Amino acid sequence: MLAIVAAVLFLIALIFELAGITLSVVTATVLLTAGLLFLALFLAGVGGGARIGRL
Predict the structure, then answer these.
(1) 1-55: pLDDT as tens digits
(2) Within 10 Å of residue 9's Cβ, how many Cβ atoms?
(3) Residue 25: helix, strand or coil by DSSP?
(4) C-beta separation of 16 from 31 below 8 A
(5) Which end of the chain has fewer CB atoms surrounding its CB within 10 Å, N or C?
C-alpha cells in the first residue's frame, strides 16, 4: 500500500513539474520528498499487513 502511495505522489510530482504548477506549499520537490518517505517506509517493511499464523 505504501508503494502505491509513493507511486501516486511521484506521478503528481511529475505532472506538477511538467506543467510548472506550484501551489503555496505543495511543490514538485515536496511531493518527491513525500514519495521517497513512503518508499523508504515500504522498503523498511512498515505497513506490510497482518501475518496470521506466522511467527
Answers:
(1) 888 899 999 999 999 999 988 888 889 999 999 999 999 988 888 876 666 766 6
(2) 20
(3) coil
(4) yes
(5) C
Q: Using DSSP, state whether 49 is helix, strand or coil.
A: coil
CA distance 9 to 55: 33
Cell reading at 50: 497482518
Contact 50, 44 (CB under 8 A): no
Contacts of residue 3, Cβ cutoff 8 Å, sequence gap at least 6: 38, 39, 42
Q: What are phi and psi of 48, to 5 degrees?
A: -75, -10
